[in-house]
């Protein structure tokens, strides 16, 4: 019995030691889990939605962070609005760009950050009637406004409200990033994807402009006030009615050959030859002028070396946008009907066929028309007669609207020597007359002004057409009209719409 007792004691000690070790190990093991909230004591990560998020944003996020999603760490989600495009850090996403818009016929051009604060506070903004929309809802039937004088489509980094959603988690890379995936893979308009296209009115670098060129000696004198603005566009257009000629003088509608530098100075890409004076200097000058445009890479629409070439539509395919540009002469002369240079004569059957073919290709269609001119000029007072398209010979309103009915998206009159009204019609827009961009008649107030149509395209869609008035004085230098007078002339034209 004594021998048994001696043998059992070491075994008992060993068992007690093992038990003590197990207890200590279990205590450490479960204690570690308890304090680190792992294992049996693990608390799943939670999703916290900040009050800065909208109901729709939370709803969308709840579709990602469902009950089946098992997070290890908490995630805090919030949203912030910026008035300039922010530099994004890891876990931040630009989810929306909102822009201010107003009525198409408004003369307002700008709002301030204070106006936005009032809008977001649901207060009435007394001086402006505007709303904020997602940039992907923007189209030409609305008018885009600047914010603090920053126009979004000119810089893409200001002039809008940039909304950023932020995800804050200790395990963002491991847990959150894979869940979000392509949720915020938005394709917003940018400088690389928006095609900018400036359409301008009548250009006739002739008569008095020839005399002025002889005195100043530099053709870029005339374009000095427009150079920066027009050369900033991807495409710049004008309708030039005057051919370059050695016989240019102060009395004829022929251009000194140095005037090509005026056009190059504004970055001209497209010249329209629908005018009724391009043959005034003779056929050799008209042909040489076309050669000059070709040498400088300036594309031609609405005219050519003969009737066949004059009738060729200009097809534009740049930055993901396809445009068919058609231009016709329906005026008092200048058209080619055979094997000599001139403008593209309008024929109903041809126009309907060409518009239809372009629409079937999915192109955006612009139609320019050299129409009959409205002649009402006064040097002593402002004569608004030609503001109204019904005062033009023929049925200008019916004819231009008919082109929209045929399928054109934008119709522009390029014969008017004074700016005319504009309107939304059907599914398109009509600009009845753009006035004179470069011209020599400074004694009539109406003829000194023009409208630049600044088009902005994104993926075949016209986001906006900004109307920018110009003026020249007795020095024949064209410049952008100041804000006060620009508003005045636009209001006058708006009041004249059909």
Tell me about this structure:
With 498 residues, the protein is α/β, with parallel strands linked by helices. It has 2 domains: 134 residues, no CATH class; 302 residues, Metallo-dependent phosphatases (Purple Acid Phosphatase, chain A, domain 2), CATH 3.60.21.10. Helix content is 28%, strand content 29%.
Uncertain ranges: 1-6
Residue-averaged pLDDT: 92
Q: What would you call the shape?
A: elongated
Largest sheet: 8 strands, mixed
| CATH class term of the largest domain | Alpha Beta
Instruction: Estimate what percentage of residues fall within beta strands.
Output: 25-35%
Based on the model shown, name its key terms:
alpha/beta; 29% strand; Purple Acid Phosphatase, chain A, domain 2; single chain; six-stranded mixed β-sheet; 2 domains; disordered N terminus
Short description, anyone?
The protein has 498 residues and is of the alpha/beta class. Helix content is 28%, strand content 29%. It is elongated, with a radius of gyration of 34 Å.
